[in-house]
Amino acid sequence: MSDERSAEERAREMIDRNLYMVLGTADRDGRPWASPVYYAPSGYREFLWISDPDARHSRNIAARPEVGIVIFDSSVPINTGQGVYMEALATELAAEEAAEAIETFSRRGVGHGAGRITLEDVREPARHRLYRARASALWILDERDNRLPASP
Predict the structure, then answer these.
(1) pLDDT tens-digit profile of 60-114?
(2) Which of 54, 69, 92, 126 is packed most tightly, with the most Cβ within 10 A?
(3) CATH code assigned at 14
(4) For the chain, what is the domain count?
(5) Residue 73 counted as domain residue
(6) Which residue, among 134, 150, 141, 119, has the nearest Cα to 45 in the 3D structure?
(7) Cβ distance 25 to 70 under 8 Å?
(8) pTM (2 decimals)?
(9) Closest by CA position to 51, among listed 71, 68, 36
């Protein structure tokens, strides 16, 4: 790879450009599960998504909030792709936290052709809830698979 941009610049670009992240969770017993979810970044360390609380990844987060996240472009040619890797804590947002966050999520979704999402769409009796992951560590890999810290 001859990309002269810093790890931080490449991480920001990947976060801004992509629509889906792979959310890695584990249940109480450690059984892993991976789910692609549409996300909205709030800065470069917080990521929002909407899910059914009965979905496997949501149940896993309720039992074990530590998650792994990867954001990458799966459409690039072989041997040219990169990803942003993260360690994070995830949670379902309570009503007081969800009010501002839903605006961030909705604004991005509208920009990608989705309808506007409101707080009522993610509170009971609605089917879905708003979730947030806060990344504690971000990195990308160099051409030798060495971690390059990315602190966007």
Answers:
(1) 999 999 999 999 988 888 888 889 999 999 999 998 889 889 999 999 999 999 9
(2) 69
(3) 2.30.110.10
(4) 1
(5) yes
(6) 134
(7) no
(8) 0.92
(9) 36
